[in-house]
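Minutes, project huddle
Topic: does the predicted pose make sense with 1,5-di-O-phosphono-alpha-D-ribofuranose bound?
PN asked that the exact inputs be recorded in the minutes so nobody has to dig through chat later. Recorded below.
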Amino acid sequence: MKLKTRLLPFESANFTVILDHNVAKKLDVKLGDRVIVRFNGRSLTAIVNTAKDFPIDSIGIYTNLARVLGISEGDEVEVEATSPPLSLQIIRKKLQGLKLESDEIYLLVKDIVEGKLSELELAAFVTAVHFQGMVPSEIYDFTISMVNTGQTLNLKKKPILDKHSLGGVPGDKTSLLVVPIIASLGYTIPKTSSRAITSAAGTADRMEVLAPVTFSIEEIEEIIHKTNGCIVWGGSLNLAPADDIIIRVEYPLGIDPFFIPSILAKKLAVGSTHIVLDIPTGRGTKVKTLEEARRISQSFHEIAKMLNMNLQTVATYAEEPIGHAIGPALEAREALQALKTLNPPDLVDKAASLAGTLLEMVGEKDGYEMAIEALKSGKAEKKLREIIEAQGGDPNIQPEDITLGDKTYTLHANDSGFVYYIDNSFLATLGKTAGAPIDKGAGVYIHVKLGEKVKKGQPLITIYSSSSAKLQLVEKLIEENTPILVGRTAGRRMLLEKIQYQPTRLVPLER
Ligand SMILES: O=P(O)(O)OC[C@H]1O[C@H](OP(=O)(O)O)[C@H](O)[C@@H]1O
Ligand SMILES: Nc1ccnc(=O)[nH]1
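Predicted holo structure (tokens), as shared on screen:
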């Protein structure tokens, strides 16, 4: 059937079209079925949404579909019903707890990249993997398939250093320091990051406060040629493009069962030769204990060995947020301050430890001291400014130029004493409820760290948002729950809380 296109200003993870009820009936498709859309010798499978009283000579086209097929308003397209993709059967197989074969995984990843699966179907798959897990061969096949369904970066200058975190600890802006430290010492570091998965900001969200993060492969090569490094969004690059589509489904669910393929595929796609992999370990994060961190490290190594990758995993302290700032703008500001002042100390120590580990992997001695020297001398700050400029941002940006949410709420200490508990996961929830990471200025500033002495009435945390309604939701959450506990004595406090039974209360998702 031939239909005229109406461009609709919406994006979706898959390709979506809108048809009038009667047109859908004529095509013999229902809500959620698939159609093939053909235009100018190219075609795509799209998922049908139906509407009442939509013009019967037209088809509503979402922006991402229009972009890929090069469709403009009023173009004529050919539309025809098609059957569900084979990969749906593969999802069913995983739901039954069965192991997937290489060719099945490739087909599934290809269908994900080609937008053939709806978010609902993808969510079922992500949830199945969350509960069923994957065996090493599946993780390996997933990683390879994610790379082979995208483009790759072929940098000539070796070695290629890289750093990646499993994520999960709030406020982890470490990459914004590690990349310039390494690049300032003459090494190549093509850092691609994802956006937030479980937290209030991912590195791509943080960097976007300072400069654009969306580039083509050719543009990335140019940025790296100029500066030795980059900090860009993996999802924009068509490097392992399945990754970002999966992350969009994982984000609202607050789960991350694909972390190994997600991370290793990105590293493989840029040709990294030496990788330091950070496993933040602590309460309220993805990895709660050192034992768990060691187990995850084993799995990473098993896959890295199959891929011939040189990997060093490190477990890092994550019992509380890194630094004080949580949320894209607050974190970008804190990273700039840290490059200038070497404060806060935990952030600087973490960045120097990771950069130092990488430097020693390529044969340098005293990597930690080298990294600290790159910070002290101002070389690392200068390098970040070069990278910001090469990515199209303002190289002279100062911490105080960064705009934060104009609505704030501060929680004060009810009592004097010592901070003995900080709830990582609840702080991430507060940041997200305030609007982060989409609202770049939204987030949480924690005024105190574990073990610090506080006086009654002293501010504990300040929440930023650009929305009063969101801030009210935050206040409500804080009425029901405490993100920071203060006790009268220094050191150990055994009683954390007398927990009230609340029959109607929903238990937050385990992350
Ligand atoms: O905390 P959540 O949102 O789960 O994890 C996602 C974050 O972890 C990784 O950090 P990096 O790129 O090594 O800095 C990802 O790229 C992303 O920025
Ligand atoms: N699943 C992931 C966790 C952390 N970083 C990523 O890029 N992906």
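Observations noted during the meeting:
- The first helix runs from residue 21 to 27.
- The chain has a mean pLDDT of 94.
No decisions taken; revisit at the next huddle.
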